[in-house]
Write a structure and sequence with these properties.
15-stranded mixed beta sheet; 6 helices; 21% helix
Length: 307
């Protein structure tokens, strides 16, 4: 049996986070400058926190310099996760069609470079379908890129889009919980955790600012809901519920939830995020969310991650 673990005086609970398999797309959007890369990244990944109700879990992966893109312009890499592979085509068609095509100066390319099971990657014809917006004025691009692409006339010139996009198998729902004595301490720790992983490729934290205040449990006392508030972690319910998980000084809890292309990047992000969070005074505990192993096959024990 391992000794109890703490880092910088912060207790690390001997538990595991539970994640599940998902499919994902990873796209590169290039723009005239970094300002518009940030704008399109924010717009295209909006309403993308949880597949409980959103069409996908979406987020900004990394920003890319001009020398690393097909058209030598700055760009942003976005990721979209979904549990059902037959729904990813409509997710990407809507996100690119409504949020990228409409945004000034954009072009859009496939950006998958790693996945959980590379041999199971498949393609969807998002760009090919979007070309019909050109109303027979669209043109196939010849001899410019090592892949098929289309140019669609728009009012500020042309929208360039790759014909097909890959869909890969990935992991959704990796997580850890930050307990704090004050809201300021817990929030600062969560912010530092997100900042510590922002340059990692192939991973997103889809909740607002990467942080979730409303962690949920499976099921509800209301029969029409399949998820509801995680009452054992709600400080205002500490005296009202028999199964509170909060100690005397655990007054605020934030959850960092991660979706990644493979296990390696999930583990790395968990480690970097937790090690950053525990540096903040007032953090009392680090834990993780799981459902007893019933939700997903990917289980990451915090002691192993941090060893």
């Amino acid at each position: 049996m391992l000794k109890k673990m703490d880092i910088n005086g912060v207790e690390i609970q001997d538990t595991f986070c539970e994640a599940f398999g998902a499919v994902f797309t990873r796209i590169l959007v290039t723009t005239i400058n970094e300002k518009w890369a940030k704008i399109v990244g924010q717009i295209a990944t909006g309403y993308g926190t949880s597949t409980i109700h959103c069409d996908s879990e979406a987020g900004i992966d990394v920003f890319v310099s001009a020398e690393k893109t097909p058209d030598n312009r700055p760009g942003v890499v976005l990721m979209f996760f979904k549990t059902k592979k037959d729904k990813m085509d409509s997710v990407l068609l809507n996100r690119i069609g409504q949020c990228v095509l409409t945004c000034p100066t954009t072009a859009c390319f496939d950006a998958i470079n790693v996945s959980l099971v590379p041999e199971k990657e498949f393609e969807i014809k998002t760009g090919y379908k979007l070309k019909f917006f050109g109303d027979k004025f669209e043109e196939k691009i010849e001899g410019v890129y090592p892949f098929e692409a289309w140019k669609i006339p728009v009012m500020d010139g042309e929208f360039i889009v790759q014909s097909t996009f890959k869909v890969g198998k990935g992991i959704a729902g990796g997580n850890f919980l930050i307990y704090g004595e004050t809201q300021e301490a817990a929030l600062e720790a969560a912010e530092k955790a997100i900042d510590a992983i922002k340059d990692l490729e192939n991973i997103i934290a889809p909740f607002p600012g990467g942080i979730a205040r409303s962690g949920s449990k499976v099921g509800s006392q209301y029969s029409f809901l399949n998820a509801s508030t995680n009452d054992p972690l709600c400080p205002t319910l500490r005296a009202k519920t028999e199964n509170s998980l909060l100690g005397e000084k655990d007054n605020y809890v934030y959850e960092v939830i991660l979706d990644g292309a493979n296990e390696e990047v999930i583990k790395k992000a968990l480690k970097l995020g937790i090690k950053a969070a525990v540096q903040v005074p007032g953090v009392t505990k680090i834990s993780a969310g799981n459902y007893g192993g019933k939700l997903g096959k990917f289980q990451y024990r915090l002691y192993d991650i941090l060893a």
